[in-house]
Write a structure and sequence with these properties.
Chain lengths: 451, 451
């Protein structure tokens, strides 16, 4: 039989996360205090984050140990399978070899628990009682809710109001885990009340929901804030994906020529790519990285690399990142997890250093690719993940055109079982493509803070 | 670390299905022709089913080889993990050991593809072009749709109208796989038109949808019918679950004292139980089997063991099974997959021989158990699967009361990501328990055919 799947035993679960900061040819820009605009100190961040997470955020140690209690939980669904997409290759009639790492086997159906579990663990260890966080479509909120229930932490999730109302099912999952879910903007925070005063009908944004969660954490001693993407420590936790994929491709006797991931905040992309990039930076094999983002929120391909806030109320530290401006509100396309104005500073830095490519793909092509994938491979991807699928298919068709048998690896970061409304809308012809107008982006960028 | 998970390598994927008919102390009753009421012949069934499936239906061979092409696809998500539910054990403070087999990792999120794939395979092999089938909540229809897309077969699914309208997401999944989904009763069949004539607002039932699909298959030479449960060959295909679980428990150094499964048509229950039961019947270790069904559709605990039709229009053969009468329409409880008037003849036979216990549990307890499970183990079960969870928890609490450290194995046959509306209704207090009134059952049973 032709091998379809590469499985690892529990022994192969990584014992350490890989920290790209150890191998970067140029150090990451400093993070600035939102008030003083001077470099931030760990003490400044202490009211928001668990101490260990702050350490990880700035660490340049190459390998950071994964605590046993965290590994014990990750082992429930890890190591995740690596698949050779033989049926898709055949459907595309491509000489390329396509592999995908399947993160949808986690209990919440995406890669998010990889970081939710350690974040809950460190907070519990440091005596924290409650976590405040935000969520867009709900993948992160439900994963954090699950992790909190496992460590007996309270969990408060600010969910972007439009999703709260339109997508009750992810919310129901959070509530099943015992989390409290509040539609954002809400009247429970100063940031929320201010927004509602100006616009009572505001349907919210990730940037607003972050402001609310950060505010709650800052004002309550027993509460800390958790974020599901963007930050260095989040990308660090996701590197289990890439480390496993390295071992699995070794089993397959292959090495990727190109690695494709979708980018919203950048965590699943960093998770699969950085261990390979680290190898390359330490003198190992070359590999091309390809970040695929939605045309409707083109952070990497049309945003600026600049210091910006992570939220609307400007409560977060200033980070150097690709951004469309913290006030940017993307059009209503169907990948809630990719609707963020900024991008992980590490992914932005890697792009700046010329170590990654980026490409924007419109949603009609992404859904068509998602359906082609489902028909061949059986798995229906989350709308976010269809961007990676579309990128991988583009690469496979390029290989066909060029007559090259390259090896393509992509991260299939979650299943679409919660997102079938998007597929219905696609089938009924209700979705349209959306190129964000240059003027709108220019306007959003004109509001970037001066530092 | 305490082991949580027992994984098998690809080599351990069963090469043969286990056929309980080889070891039954008393042969299964014959199947009767719906017209003549005489024992049915393979030729009678040929217009409906692929030949190989008819052979498997009546085979008494103990081990039936799984074709390589089928194993190649099953390997995508099999062998599925077996988990020790240590966190649930702790939450229950029970001396019992609880293991669960996790079937929700398949692309459609349940155990159904285990039989959808071989059914599609054999039909393709025999030159069939199109499959007609029915589905209740949609787990089966989406699994059959997936299998058909993999073997390039057309797929026509009659979906119970109330689910078609209320649960568009499973339907969208079928359509993503390229299947055609029709609300049943429909005007595309004689059976459907007759029902609609009598009751234009009829919201359908599984028994009606079966009539429509069977009719289409019977009338088109290039079309065959497929069923997702009840039949012997379906239960046969599901035995991969139990065969794997045997190997995994051996790894764990344990053997079940009791095995719990939920029963609608009986396939996931038979799948996990029969390989163990076979061992016992061949002189191996004793094991108690416990079938858990919904109180609102109490086929095993309140139905009769009698010859009955599988459908409303009385087109199917007559089989000896536990039944509430083919005209029985269960109350609108939230486990679409368990709303069937009949029960697998093999499960019925096993019950009659005293080889299995059966218990009905009401839905409020099932949902409470599902949520307790999700909080401890992270996985939110499908409403159907919560019946197995509730049964396992009852057994674990019994062990606690009796101070016994029994080993409990249950089948967690699917995830609840498509079923969050049921959890919302539960949280909002909209669900109620439902004991089907004895008179209603008596009336339904009074219509049983005389043979």
């Amino acid at each position: 039989m032709n091998t379809l799947k590469y499985l690892l035993s529990d022994d192969a679960l990584p014992t350490h996360w890989y920290n790209l900061q150890a191998d970067l040819p140029e150090a990451m820009p400093e993070v600035l205090h939102p008030g003083t605009k001077k470099p931030i100190t760990p003490a400044d961040l202490a009211p928001l984050f668990a101490e260990e997470l702050i350490k990880q955020e700035v660490s340049t140690e190459r390998w950071i140990e994964i605590p046993d209690a965290v590994r014990q939980i990750l082992l429930q669904w890890r190591c995740t399978p690596l698949y050779r997409a033989r049926r898709l290759e055949k459907a595309l009639d491509t000489p390329a070899k396509i592999y995908y790492k399947w993160e949808g086997v986690s209990p919440s159906g995406s890669h998010k628990p990889n970081t939710a579990v350690p974040q809950a663990y460190y907070n519990k260890l440091e005596g924290i009682r409650k976590i405040a966080t935000e969520t867009g479509a709900g993948q992160w909120g439900s994963s954090m809710g699950m992790a909190c229930s496992m460590f007996d932490l309270e969990c408060l999730v600010y969910m972007v109001k439009v999703s709260y109302n339109q997508k009750p099912y992810r919310r129901a999952l959070m509530e099943a885990y015992g989390a409290t879910c509040i539609a954002s903007p809400s009247d429970t925070t100063e940031s929320g009340r201010k927004i509602l005063q100006d616009d009572p009908d505001c349907t919210g944004s990730l940037g607003i929901a972050i402001s609310e969660a950060v505010e709650v954490a800052a004002q309550n001693e027993d509460t800390r804030y958790c974020l599901g993407s963007v930050l260095n420590h989040v990308l660090l936790h996701q590197t289990v994906i890439g480390i496993e994929a390295q071992k699995q491709l070794e089993m397959a006797g292959d090495y990727p020529d190109v690695i494709v991931g979708c980018t919203g905040g950048g965590s699943n992309y960093g998770g699969i790519c950085f261990p390979f990039l680290g190898e390359k930076l330490r003198g190992g094999r070359d590999v091309r990285l390809l970040a695929v983002e939605p045309s409707a929120c083109p952070t990497l391909t049309k945003g600026h690399l600049a210091y910006d806030y992570g939220d609307v109320a400007k409560l977060t530290p200033l980070v150097m990142m690709h951004t469309l401006g913290s006030g940017f509100v993307p059009a209503g396309f169907h990948s809630g997890g990719l609707r963020y104005h900024g991008m992980a500073p590490m992914v932005s830095h890697v792009l700046k250093l010329g170590l990654s490519d980026a490409r924007a793909i419109n949603q009609l092509e992404c859904f068509a690719s998602g359906i082609q994938f489902a028909k061949a491979e059986g798995i229906i991807p989350a709308p976010e993940a269809t961007h990676a699928v579309a990128g991988a298919i583009q690469e496979a068709l390029r290989c066909k055109e060029e007559g090259k048998s390259e090896t393509i690896l992509f991260n299939l970061c979650g299943h679409g079982h919660f997102d079938m409304q998007a597929y219905i809308d696609y089938h009924e012809g209700k979705l349209r493509d959306y190129e964000y107008p240059e003027e709108a982006i220019a306007m959003a960028l004109s509001g970037l803070p001066s530092v």
